[in-house]
């Protein structure tokens, strides 16, 4: 088996997209609002995990500029190289987040912006549960996705073939709550990436908090 065949499909997709991905989504005002929501709830110098950190912009850049200790993890070597160059205040690691050791209660906040769509539903559910365990009780997690009732659907994303799985908004809220999160706020919007022939797509942002240790729901 070649190295290319061994790499996760997402790595190949985002290696090919590179900086074009950042340009296509740079205009998302909902993403910026989501980051502002999180910034307003973080103590100075918080430790933040950015899952699927891409080029580092806007998430890691915004958080690091505010003085937070940011670790970005992305499966794409090209994205990690771009991020490290563009956001030197943050640390980045090229890895599959499912294989990265995460100590319990080791992060004040975790960002998961559109980085689960190429995992199946079981993998998404398991990863969210694992990320919640890595959050300190009372810590915040922001989860963004394209809220559709699709599973293993072949599609084209910015010219790249992908296999997409997602949840409806209601189902994703249920997954988050069952994992130990309290959904404090959510925003649904339509966004058109700046990349022809992109069409408007639904975006959902869930702003969550890990339930305190003394919460009987866990």
From TrEMBL:
Domain annotation Methyltransferase: ranges: 48-139
For this UniProt record, the keywords arranged alphabetically read as follows: Methyltransferase, Transferase
Q: What's a GO biological-process term for it? A: methylation
User: Known EC number(s)?
Assistant: 2.1.1.222, 2.1.1.64
Its top-level enzyme class, in one word, is transferase
One Pfam family from the UniProt entry? Methyltransf_25
Q: Does the keyword Coiled coil apply?
A: no
Give the GO molecular function terms.
2-polyprenyl-6-hydroxyphenol methylase activity; 3-demethylubiquinol 3-O-methyltransferase activity
Kindly provide the name given to this protein in its UniProt entry.
Class I SAM-dependent methyltransferase
Q: Which organism is it from?
A: Streptomyces rochei (Streptomyces parvullus)
């Amino acid at each position: 088996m070649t190295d290319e065949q061994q790499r996760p499909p997402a790595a190949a997709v985002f290696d090919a997209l590179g900086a074009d991905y950042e340009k296509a989504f740079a205009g998302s005002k909902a993403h910026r609002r989501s980051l502002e929501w999180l910034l307003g709830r973080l103590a100075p110098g918080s430790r933040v995990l950015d899952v699927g950190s891409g080029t580092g912009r806007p998430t890691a850049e915004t958080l690091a500029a505010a003085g937070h200790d940011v670790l970005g993890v992305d499966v794409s070597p090209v994205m990690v190289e771009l991020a490290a160059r563009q956001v030197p205040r943050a640390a980045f690691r090229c890895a599959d987040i499912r294989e990265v050791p995460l100590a319990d209660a080791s992060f004040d906040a975790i960002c998961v912006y559109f980085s689960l769509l190429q995992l199946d539903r079981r993998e998404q559910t398991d990863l969210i549960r694992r990320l919640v365990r890595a959050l300190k009780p009372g810590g915040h997690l922001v989860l963004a996705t394209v809220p559709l009732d699709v599973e293993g659907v072949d599609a084209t994303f910015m010219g790249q073939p992908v296999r997409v799985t997602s949840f409806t908004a209601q189902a994703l809220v249920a997954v988050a709550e069952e994992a130990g999160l309290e959904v404090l706020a959510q925003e649904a919007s339509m966004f058109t990436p700046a990349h022809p022939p992109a069409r408007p797509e639904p975006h959902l942002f869930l702003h969550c908090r890990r339930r305190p240790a003394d919460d009987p729901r866990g």
